[in-house]
Amino acid sequence: MIIWLASYPKSGNTWVRSIVNQLIHNDIKKKEDVFEGLIKIRRYPSRGDFINLPRIPKNYSELQKKELINYTIKNWKYSQENINKNKEVKIFKTHNMLCKLEVENKHYVFTDISNSIGAIHVVRDPRNIVSSVMNHFNHNDISESIDMIKFQYTWTGFKNDEVPQFLSSWSNHYNSWKRFPKNYLLIKYEDLIKDTNSELIKIINFLNKFIKIESNEIKIKNILDTTNFKYLKKLEKEGKFNENAYENIDKKKEFFHLGPNNNWENSLENKIK
After folding, report:
1. How does pLDDT run across 180-192, given as a tens digit for each residue?
2. In terms of Cα–Cα distance, which of 188, 196, 190, 197 is closest to 260?
3. What is the C-alpha to C-alpha distance for residues 6 and 153, in angstroms, rounded to an integer?
4. pLDDT at 246 over 60
């Protein structure tokens, strides 16, 4: 069964993912290996989840954009059933909205309680997301990023033969996951900055419902030291992070961009605020 690490893009998902990865998978004494095994909490939907399904055509990556979207929607449920065949608890990150969409007069849900047992919902003030979205998606100006956050029908993830994700607007995305029917934990990015220790304890208590988490004061301190923004940014500069977007074919975009220093009061014009 699946536990979701759900968020709108650039909301702190990778930060929380790194914390969960340290809790479950990594030896916290190895401070240089924070991103080691991060793939174990991977993106959904991913191509590997869809490629072997009988309902997916062999030329999946060659489909026109609308066909690709329709096949993705129609196979959310089937791909998750396939993932859950071994009945193990798995944690996936997603930027997909918790939605129900119509294709050919039939409705399909992104997920349901037959495939999912919980959700950690990471939320960030959308005014602080704007400049991060602009950097990550190579937008020409801030108005393009604002339109993306406000727009009602936004899909991303078509590059590199990946499976697209449906974002919708920030507001729709937030309200959809807020209604997750059971085992729901809300983590606010701003609270993570203000008191990371308290939010970490919330995450440990939540995950302990499904996975045995061994924790003590030393482990918690090490996780706080190795997953703070400044340290993650340092590791990225040393080439230890490999999930960057690209500005062009040769140049990576900075992923850990501004973090706690991203204050909308300083970056947005008064007419936008």
Report:
1. 999 999 999 999 9
2. 190
3. 18
4. no
The pTM for the full model equals 0.82
C-alpha count within 13 angstroms, C-beta hemisphere, residue 192? 26
88: which residues sit within 8 A by CB, 6+ positions away? 1
pLDDT digits (tens, 9 = 90+) for 18-42: 889 888 876 555 555 666 667 788 9
Residue 249 has pLDDT above 50, yes or no: no
- With bands split at pLDDT 50, 70 and 90, how would you rate the model's confidence at 269? low
Q: 143-152 burial string, b = 16+ CB within 10 Å, else e? A: eebbebbeee
Q: CA 187, 116, 59: angle at the middle one, nearest 5?
A: 110
Give the contacts of 257 (CB within 8 A, at least 6 positions apart): 131, 132, 135, 136
Contacts of 132 (CB under 8 A, 6+ apart): 10, 257, 258, 262
φ, ψ (nearest 5 deg) of residue 119:
-145, 130
Cis peptide leading into 45, omega within 30 of 0?
A: yes
**Closest listed residue to residue 78, CA positions, set 102, 54, 47:** 54
Distance, in Å, from the CA atom of 14 to the CA atom of 158, rounded to the nearest integer, reads 20
